[in-house]
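Record R3H domain-containing protein, 289 aa.
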Amino acid sequence: MAIDSSDQTPSQPATPVAAILPTEHRMVTVLTSPTPVRTATLTIPLSRPTSPTPSKPTRPEKPTLRRDSLNRREALLRGQEGSRRRQRWENDRLLSNPHAIPPTASDWEVRPLYPRRHVPYEFASLYDHPKFPHKVAAIPNHQAGEKMPKELKVRMKKTRGAIGLLKSLEEEVRKFVLGEQDEVKAREEEEKDDVVDDESDEEIVFISRRAKQFQLKTEKVLFESPVSDPGASFGRWLVHSIATYYGLKSWSITTGNPAKRIAYVGLKNDPKNSALVVKGIPKPLWLML
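=>
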């Protein structure tokens, strides 16, 4: 049986259908959508956490002072303020000198010890000129150098009263050498001044140079003592040492009855021309003691 819709009562009005806008639809979907789940990472430390200790006021740690510390050594070297040690320490380091300049890198360069003269290149060729004053090695006028023998110096220090003996022997040697020098000079002057007069009828006798040299005193007795004297050997040793220093030859002989030991000194012969050599006189030995 069909129900007629016209029989419905007019007291129930029909509900109107509302129109839904797009913006409202979006808000509804946002409000009705489920909330997203938040994720977080969990870290577990392997070591136990250190418990924070409350900060307490502590005194600063003093450095351990050793017995021979460098600070103590430096303090001892400096000394107290105003002391003589402190003054010397400051003077050594030029601390109170206003003109002191610290060393530079050029001060540590390796330089020659001899003075260097800067010669321009254009003047360097003048050094080869024959008139340029070149340095020539000085030729010594005696063979023996003016240096006391070490053995003689040691023995003279150990022997008391030997300086007087050395002085007397050396004075005789110096007189002998000086006399020979004067005679040689005088003979050289005579040879230059000798002029032969052809008009004179006097007999002329020529004497060779070798014969003139034999007229010189070529030897001299310097020390004489009996053979039995045990202390005379030191005097003869002094004679030989003095002769070596002055470039002379010396020898000893035994003569007489009773026997005596005599020490001689004489001039040496030049091996080139067999002439007697008379050298210069160096500084006395007894002045070097």
